[in-house]
Design brief:
Elements (H helix, E strand, L loop, with lengths): L3 H11 L4 H7 L4 H10 L5 H6 L5 H14 L8 H24 L5 E3 L9 H7 L15 H9 L7 E2 L18 H18 L7 H7 L13 H11 L30 E4 L5 H10 L3 E5 L4 H4 L1 E6 L11 E8 L3 E5 L11 E5 L11 E5 L1
Parallel strand pairs: 5-8
Antiparallel strand pairs: 1-5, 2-6, 3-9, 4-6, 4-9, 6-7, 7-8
Helix pairs in contact: 8-12, 9-10
The structure holds 2-acetamido-2-deoxy-beta-D-glucopyranose (NAG) (2 copies).
C-alpha cells in the first residue's frame, strides 16, 4: 500500500516535475497509479499504462521542468548534448520500468541528477576510483578472528537503525568517491565508540591524499587514502574543512584534527561471508564497486541486480552500512534523488558488481 509518507517521498523526489512526467513515472507501480488516479483526476488508469514517450511539445516542457527541478544550467551547445543524453535515458527508464512492472527486474530506475549524462560522460566524470593493488593482508589474524566471531551473526543488520544516520552527500563534478567512503567509514568507527555523529572531512582527503598517490578530483584508491591517513597526523571534521567539489591546496591543520587512524585492514577478496561478519562486528565498511551500467547510473529503488554488472572491474567506492537477507545496503554520494534516499540495495551472494573484491575498514 502506498502510505502518505511514501507519497511525500515520491512527490519530493519528483520535485517540480509536471504531471506529464508522472504519466511515465507512475506507470511502474500499481499503487502509484491508484494514487495519482485519485490525486489528479485528469489522469486515468489507462493513461498510466500506456507507457508512451511524450510528444516533442511534451518533451520540451519536461526538459524545462527537469532543468528547473534539478537546478541545471547549461552553456551553449552543451544543452543540446545533455538533452540528447537525457532523452535516451528517459527512453531507457520507460522500457526498463515497463519490464520491472511485469516482474522481469527486481528494481526500478528513474530520472536523477545524473540522467543528463551519456555513458561516456558518466564514466569520465562520476566513476573515478583507481584500483587498489592488493597485497597480502597485513594482519592475517584478522581473518582467523572473523571466523571465530561468525557465530550469532544476525540475518539482517542496518547501522542506520542503530543510529548511524548521516546526511545525503553529493560529490558533484569531482571524482572523490574514495574520500567519502573512507571519511564515512571512520565516522562510523567514532559513532560505534562514542555514539556521537561527527561528520569528517572528505575534502581534506581530496586535497591532501595526493601525497599518497591519489589524484584529487581526478580519482584515487581506497588503499592510498588509508595510507595517507597512516601518516597524516589526523583527520579534521567536515565543518572545519568542508566539501567544495574542487581540488585545492591541502589545508590540513594538525591542531584541529579530531581523529587518528590507528589501524586498517582489507577483507579477504570475494568473500561475502567475511563482509557480513565485518559489518556486524566492526561497523560500516568502505567497498569498491563496478558502477558502469546505465542501470546503476539511473538506479532508483528495489534490489539492484543487473547481470551485466560485471565483478571483473571496479571504478567507484561506497559505504556498506548493513545487509538484509538478500541485499547489501550501500550509501552513495550522488544526491538525494539517486536510489532510495541516496542508498542502494544490491543483490547479495553473487559478488554482483564486484562488491566483495576490495573491502576495507579502518579502526580509530
Ligand atoms: C542552483 O545553481 C546555482 C548556480 O550553480 C547556485 O548558485 C544555487 O545555489 C543553486 N540553487 C539550489 C537551490 O541548489
Ligand atoms: C594523531 O597522531 C599524531 C601523531 O602521532 C598526534 O600528533 C596527534 O595529536 C594525534 N591527533 C589526535 C586527534 O589524536
Amino acid at each position: 500500500m502506498l502510505t502518505h509518507s511514501n507519497y511525500n517521498k515520491v512527490s519530493q523526489s519528483m520535485g517540480m516535475m509536471s504531471h506529464l512526467l508522472f504519466i511515465i513515472i507512475c506507470s511502474y507501480r500499481s499503487e502509484m497509479i491508484a494514487l495519482f488516479h485519485i490525486l489528479f483526476l485528469t489522469l486515468s488508469l489507462t493513461h498510466c499504462q500506456i507507457f508512451h514517450l511524450p510528444s516533442s511539445t511534451e518533451l520540451n516542457k519536461l526538459w524545462h521542468d527537469f532543468k528547473r527541478s534539478f537546478n541545471k544550467t547549461y552553456v551553449g551547445y552543451h544543452e543540446e548534448r545533455r538533452r540528447q543524453a537525457w532523452e535516451e535515458n528517459l527512453q531507457r527508464i520507460v522500457e526498463h520500468n515497463k519490464d520491472a512492472h511485469k516482474g522481469k527486474h527486481s528494481y526500478f530506475i528513474n530520472i536523477n541528477d545524473l540522467s543528463d549524462l551519456n555513458t561516456r560522460t558518466y564514466l569520465q566524470k562520476m566513476v573515478k576510483l583507481t584500483q587498489s593493488t592488493r597485497r597480502k593482508l597485513e594482519n592475517p589474524e584478522v581473518v582467523g578472528d572473523f571466523y571465530e566471531m561468525a557465530h550469532h551473526i544476525p540475518d539482517e543488520f542496518d547501522w542506520r537503525k542503530a543510529g548511524f544516520k548521516t546526511p545525503i552527500y553529493n560529490q558533484k563534478d569531482c571524482g572523490s568517491c574514495y574520500a567519502f567512503s573512507v571519511a564515512l567509514a571512520l565516522q562510523a568507527q567514532i559513532f560505534k565508540q562514542t555514539n556521537q555523529l561527527v561528520p569528517l572531512s572528505a575534502q581534506q582527503l581530496v586535497d591532501c591524499s595526493v601525497s599518497a598517490g591519489n589524484y584529487g578530483c581526478g580519482g584515487g584508491s581506497l588503499r592510498n587514502t588509508l595510507r595517507y591517513l597512516d601518516q597524516s597526523g589526523g583527520l579534521m571534521t567536515y565543518k572545519d574543512y568542508p566539501y567544495i567539489a574542487k581540488q585545492t591546496r591541502c589545508h590540513f591543520d594538525q591542531h584541529r584534527a579530531i581523529v587518528n587512524l590507528s589501524s586498517w585492514a582489507i577483507l579477504p577478496a570475494r568473500n561475502e561471508r567475511a563482509m557480513e561478519i565485518a559489518i556486524y562486528k566492526i561497523g560500516p565498511i568502505a567497498a569498491s564497486i563496478n558502477a558502469s551500467p546505465h542501470t546503476f547510473q539511473l538506479y532508483h529503488s528495489g534490489v539492484y541486480d543487473d547481470p551485466f554488472c560485471s565483478p571483473n572491474t571496479v571504478n567507484h567506492a561506497m559505504l556498506v552500512v548493513g545487509y538484509t537477507k538478500d541485499a547489501w545496503i550501500l550509501k552513495n554520494w550522488w544526491g538525494n534523488r539517486w536510489g532510495e534516499d541516496g542508498y542502494m540495495r544490491l543483490r547479495r551472494g553473487a559478488n554482483r558488481c564486484g562488491i566483495a573484491n576490495f573491502v576495507a575498514y579502518g579502526v580509530v
